Amino acid sequence: MTGDNVLVCDNIVRRFGGVVALKNVSVAVRQGEIFGLVGPNGSGKTTLVNAITGFYPPQDGTITLDGQKINGLKPFRIASMGVARTFQNVALFHGMSVLDNILMGRHIFMKPNPLASFLYPWWAQKEEIAHRRHVEEVIDLLQLAPARDEHVDVIPLGLQKRVELARALCAEPKLLVLDEPMAGMNQEEKEYMVRFILDAQDALGLTVLIIEHHMDVVTALCDRVLVLNNGQEIAQGPAREAIADPRVVEAYIGKPRNAA
Ligand SMILES: Nc1ncnc2c1ncn2[C@@H]1O[C@H](COP(=O)(O)OP(=O)(O)OP(=O)(O)O)[C@@H](O)[C@H]1O
């Protein structure tokens, strides 16, 4: 699995005590695609994302980003190599505005150098303007301008999730990892979010790995999917085909009583 793959996970194993959360899971995400991670509750989706982002490194197997091995690296190192992430439960900085939260996405590019800033203030100013320009582009893309000065604690959940997406986009990721970006949203909010993700992919040429439970969202967004059950792959391939696989249907709704 090489070529235009941004992310390659090869035979990933992760145990928690006696629970084997991932059993030899392999997946490759291609440049520019939206790849879905699907499966019933407890099937290992978040564990795989945690392995990729360095929160729970795998005990076996290899993970590479653009051909570079990343398993074993700390989360901040993996983030600085170009993996940005949103969380199942929104993780924004409380007490701060929408704009300040989004600006935090640029921190991986900020290398404070007081001496350089003192000697060359124009240089620091130029850098600040470049950060602002990128942030404004993302704000426009996700239509967040009307909410930019609001406190994140008082805006609706759908908007909070959009702010989290904006913050991740500001990191200019090679790989954007979205953990259930539609969780808790109503139908209208979900449709908006699908549109924003597709627009962002189109404008910024993103590569996305997304955990998603809503099958209408999966088919609207994903080029390909990996379906997990009990920590193992049960299907992988184009979204519509994979989720129609009888093993996937069975994992979600169970076997009919009269089946052999
Ligand atoms: N930190 C942990 N400690 C112990 N067990 C864990 C831990 N994280 C995950 N597990 C176990 O690993 C298995 C897979 O969990 P995981 O959260 O990856 O599933 P999931 O597919 O993301 O589920 P959901 O859709 O409900 O979020 C479960 O049995 C879970 O209890």
CATH architecture of the largest domain: 3-Layer(aba) Sandwich
Encode the helix/strand succession as letters: EEEHEEHEHHHHEHEHEEHH
Structural class: alpha/beta
CATH class of the largest domain: Alpha Beta
The helical percent reads 25-40%
The CATH superfamily of the largest domain is known as: P-loop containing nucleotide triphosphate hydrolases
Residue fraction in strands: 15-25%
Distance between the termini: 37 Å
Number of folding domains?
Answer: 2
Main pleated sheet: 6 strands, mixed
What ligands can be seen in this structure? Answer: adenosine-5'-triphosphate
Q: Provide the spatial order of strands within the biggest beta sheet.
A: 6-7-8-3-9-10
Choose one word for the global shape.
globular
GO molecular function: ATP binding; ATP hydrolysis activity
Keywords: ATP-binding, Nucleotide-binding, Transport
Protein name: ABC transporter ATP-binding protein
InterPro entries: AAA+_ATPase (IPR003593), ABC_AA/LPS_Transport (IPR051120), ABC_transporter-like_ATP-bd (IPR003439), P-loop_NTPase (IPR027417)
